Amino acid sequence: MADTASKHIDMTTGSLWRNIPLFAFPVAATSILEQLSNLIATVIIGNFSGDQGTLAMAAVGSNVPLTSLMLNLFIGISLGSNVVIANAIGRNDQNMVKRAVHTSILMALAGFVVIALGEIFAEPMLAALNVPSETMPLASLYLRVFLLSMPSILLYNFEAAIFRSVGITRMPLQALAVSTVLNIGLDLIFVPVLHWGVAGVAIATAIAYTVSAATLFIRLLKTDSVVRVTLRDLAIDPVALKRIVKIGLPAGIQSAVFAVANIIIQSAINSLGTEVMAASSAAMSLEYVCYNLLNSFSQACTTFVGQNHGARQIDRCTKTLKVCLVEGGIVALTTIIVIVGLGREILSLFNSDPNIVSIGYIRVCSIFPAYAFSMFYENMSGYLRGFGISLTPALITMICVCGIRFYWVFCVFPHFRTFANIMMVYPISLGTTAFFMVVAVLLCHPARTYRATQAKATAR
């Protein structure tokens, strides 16, 4: 195969203004492709399910917070793999790189545990979301079938994290691009032709992710990069596992907290009826695309800082944050203008009902401008994680995001039961989180702390 090592992005030398976008945009494209399948599935479900179109859209949309909770936890842990491997590469510790890579692959087996628990508690979890009785059968069916894809989804994300740690970002994108085309093709067969409905969409997802995970695994077996996998070395290394979990678990909790908060909000949205659920589902699909675009700079920040921290290039770590904030800010502003400006037209692609489009646009106008706050705190979280500081941003997110949204749903919403009222909590919680994340970076100041520690060590 081609020399993949020559295609990696060198994070410790060269222009950050050039290399960070080279890293971030393929990561963004990969994340957007992951959501594209969901977007198209929502369109297909809404337009090719006959009289059940709106009901099927509501069933899929009501599952988004639950599936996000499961995925975000483990994808966050995979970010721990990214940081540990990147830092070891920066230190030129090839032994730790090898142990962390093989440990990461086996950690994807946790997906089978998720399947078992999810199959048992599918309906109770949906009931906790106040999913209406008319939506419950389809929502439960979708969730049970979707869970079968969890091992493949987790394996793909751990594999992608491994490649990104060494600066190889195009390979995960290429693998997912192929599986996305496959997913769309299967959706068009399973729903309009075979009439499998929501189950067909979930089956297509499982097949597509299995293909992408298998593709990356074969590439890891054949790559000439330092992250090459060999079957005989597949084992859980306790030291590597501890380091990955120490960084990844708080990152996973930070990501999962958003899902928990969204579960609380989804429960309130569900109480407003199927039509509001369908409109919110369509707008939510757009949000995930936007969020993943912005979050790619956070992932770039984490990986670049991780490698440069390992290589003891602390000034370059600080510059990485600045570059990510500037370039991420430009992307955020552009995205906000485009989506808000064309919001109604885009929403009409999901469902042509004017009322659903109008309700969905309320969500677009409430949430998308607030993504400017997301850009700030995600990049600062990534900066701290690159230095191995993962618990602090997780705690801030738990308190500011989950706490505020929990309070709003249970204390404010009951007095003003409107969709617009629920949406107000997003800019409030995101803005508060951004403020305290800035404070955390200023107080922790990892670059200054590192220099002080090195100065003391030198003095001794």
Automatic annotation (TrEMBL):
Gene Ontology MF terms: antiporter activity; xenobiotic transmembrane transporter activity
Subcellular location: Cell membrane
Name of the molecule in the record: Probable multidrug resistance protein NorM
Record's keyword annotation contains Transmembrane: yes
Primary location class: membrane
Taxonomic lineage of the native organism: Bacteria, Bacillati, Actinomycetota, Coriobacteriia, Coriobacteriales
Biological source species: Collinsella aerofaciens (strain ATCC 25986 / DSM 3979 / JCM 10188 / KCTC 3647 / NCTC 11838 / VPI 1003)
Keyword Ion transport attached: yes
Membrane-spanning parts: 20-49, 69-89, 101-121, 141-163, 175-195, 201-221, 323-344, 356-377, 389-410, 422-444
